[in-house]
Amino acid sequence: MAADGDSTDRARGTAGYARAADALAVQYEEVTFGEVHCDVLGLVPSGPARILDVGAGTGRDAAALVALGHSVVAVEPTTELRVHGQRIHAGSAIDWVDDVLPGLTLNQCPGRFDAVFATGVWMHLNAEERGHAMARIAALLMPGGRFFVNLRHGPVPEGRHMFDVSAAETAELGAAHGLRTVLSSERSDLHGRDGVRWSTLVLQAKNARRALD
Ligand SMILES: C[S@@+](CC[C@H](N)C(=O)[O-])C[C@H]1O[C@@H](n2cnc3c(N)ncnc32)[C@H](O)[C@@H]1O
Fold this sequence. Notes:
By secondary structure, the chain is of the alpha/beta class. Helices cover 28% and strands 24% of the residues. The protein has 7 helices and 7 strands; from the N terminus they run ααβαβαββαβαββα. It has helices at residues 21-28, 33-36, 60-67, 79-88, 127-140, 167-176, 208-212; strands at residues 50-54, 71-75, 95-97, 113-119, 141-153, 179-188, 197-205. β1, α3 (60-67) and β2 form a beta-alpha-beta unit. α1 crosses α4 (79-88). The structure holds S-adenosylmethionine (SAM).
């Protein structure tokens, strides 16, 4: 949980990412959106939708979602990763934003989203930040909108600021903010790292009719 000088209080969770950005830019793009999100593909909006990817890294998922016809805002607070993403996906209409959970002001991109992705990000937030972040994301979802969360479990890489966050806790926190768990699954690490496992959850906002009940 050590900070390494390349993050600030604005986003302690970004500790370690700037200095490793060149290598991570290669690693993140070695796997595909379809592989990372294989368990939830059936829940990704099928028609053109407005989608937010928070902690987008190099924009692998954002670019895939744009290619599927969606309008995508990619939030990435680590400048070095954002710059790699803008280079790698230069031909993609991703709307890149420098912002950070839990506040996520999105001043340049107001309005709500049909889906929000947070892949490998949530366990960088402490308990208080997770509470604020869940409230913020619930407020950003359209009625019936879905929050796709991916949690990393296992050893913490050197210099990263990470917490052990369970799927059960995340589902409970979502429920406290009106989000129902519609899918929960676990998988091994696509990069084959020792002891690393991943949980996937899809949390859904009430639809418009039920919201009025
Ligand atoms: C493990 S990487 C995942 C990147 C990308 N989602 C992927 O799957 O390839 C985690 C990302 O979350 C970002 N991050 C860390 N703390 C954050 C925060 N508080 N708000 C938004 N993003 C954050 C980091 O800068 C990093 O790009």
